[in-house]
Amino acid sequence: MAEFYQEVLEGINTPVLVLHYDGQIKDLTLLYANRAALTTLNLGLTPCMEHHISTLLPWIYEYLKWSELEIGDTRTLTETIGDYPFWVYVHKHNKTDFIVELSRAMLSEPEIDTTQASNPQLTKAFSQAILKAINKEVYFLKENQYLKSLLDLLPTMAAIKDSSLRYRYVNKAFCEFVGKTHDELLGLTDADFCPMDQAHQFQAIDRMVIQENRVIENEELYTDTKGVHHHLLTKKTPIMDNQGNLGVQFVTVDITEVKSTHKKLEELMGIYQDVSSKVEAVFWMVDTQFRISFVSQSIRDYLGYDVDEFSRLTPWEYFSRESLETARSMKDKLMGFHACEHYDELMKPQTMLINLLHKAGHYVSSEFRFSVMLNEEGQISGYQGFIFRACAQASIHH
User: Fold this and answer.
1) 338-345: long-range contacts at Cβ-Cβ below 8 A with a sequence spacing of 24 or more?
2) φ/ψ of residue 17, rounded to 5
3) Running along the chain, 398 residues long, what does each successive block of 10 average in pLDDT?
């Protein structure tokens, strides 16, 4: 995180310190001080080097040791530094960091209310310098509290990155997915916890979203710390902060299981295609209204249609009138088994004689051997099976 603070605060003329502790105030150290702060405090230190505050800046340490600041709270102190009076604004940035700003006291003490968490002088000072650099923090982490509370309730992963592609917000689902806490992820880039090649791909899309100011949906591959590959479906949207800086907000869903199921289905369909061609039969799947959801390529030899043509036909376009009535009667019979929970009967292979319309205009007498398909809720979702030629083409014409 020190590198992040250095990136956004180094060029600011206002003296700013970042103090850090792990668990207890007695462990408070100087995480970062910009050059203006080093000069003002006459510290003569190299930026980003950790030094214990109890000896370095005892007056701040003594105050923080007894204060009970909550995240987002700001307090104002007065301190003489190098014979000059300063207002010292102490802001509890997160669980482990305080941001301290020093400002020459140009106002009389009564004009500043030091008891309020939201101090007007701090707002003024930050608007002049620090807010320009860490405005992303204010916008993403303070103004969107309501939005964040909603996103935390979602099972879908959601996150926000700033214009430097550092994470400024991650919801609970995202934290659980990558195996890191909210505080651990803030300020990181994808390169800090993703395989480098994948991080570069993620960031390339992020830059396109920002530079072209457009929404991009794509599939991404992410490898977790255990080496498990995840297929992610991601939608990335540009987001603008108060200063007009574009960042990226995105939602992503792990579709690994869906991809795996789809692959297995494709393999299964390939087997059906192969079987269909060898036994001169057609494999098809229909929903409960007998609309085609899948049909093997052998339909061309069987009825003269290509797959796309036949898939667009309605049942009354490929069934004879009598066959459509037969199919509806079979459906009512199977629905009755389901309603009475006669699952042994329901799941038995079924056979139905039907006439199907050939593209040339004649009907083909066929035998449909099929079984019932059930969805996850146990409801009938359709029928699947093979169609065989029952006899020579009938002389019936359409």
Assistant:
1) 338/379, 338/380
2) -120, 150
3) 63 77 78 83 62 79 80 79 80 82 57 40 41 41 50 72 88 89 90 91 92 87 88 84 75 74 55 49 81 84 89 88 90 88 82 90 88 81 81 39
pLDDT of residue 367: 86
The conformational region for residue 346 under phi > 0 = left, psi -120 to 50 = alpha, else beta, is: alpha
Instruction: Report the half-sphere exposure of 129 (CA within 13 A, side-chain side).
Output: 16
pTM, entire model: 0.36
Do the bridges between strand 84-92 and strand 350-357 make them parallel or antiparallel, or are there none, so unpaired?
A: unpaired
| Distance in angstroms (rounded) separating the CA atoms of residues 156 and 15 | 41
Locus of tokens 């009564």? 110
What pLDDT score was predicted for residue 258?
Answer: 64
Q: What is the DSSP letter of 160?
A: E
Give all domains of the chain, ordered by start, each with its CATH number. Answer: 2-134 (3.30.450.20), 145-254 (3.30.450.20), 259-389 (3.30.450.20)
If one counts every other C-beta atom within 10 angstroms of the C-beta of residue 82, the result is: 9
**Token output for 172:** 């609970």
What is the three-class DSSP state of 236?
strand
Q: Cβ distance 315 to 350 under 8 Å?
A: no
For residues 15 and 101, the answer to whether their CB atoms sit within 8 Å is yes
Q: Environment class of residue 5 by beta-carbon count within 10 Å: exposed (0-12), middle (13-18) or buried (19+)?
A: buried
Burial class (CB in 10 A: 0-12, 13-18, 19+), 21: middle
| Amino acid making up residue 42 | N
pLDDT at 208: 92
| Residue found under tokens 């710390």 | 225
Instruction: Enumerate long-range contacts of 169-178, CB under 8 Å, 24 or more apart.
Output: 169/140, 169/141, 169/144, 174/252, 177/254, 178/224
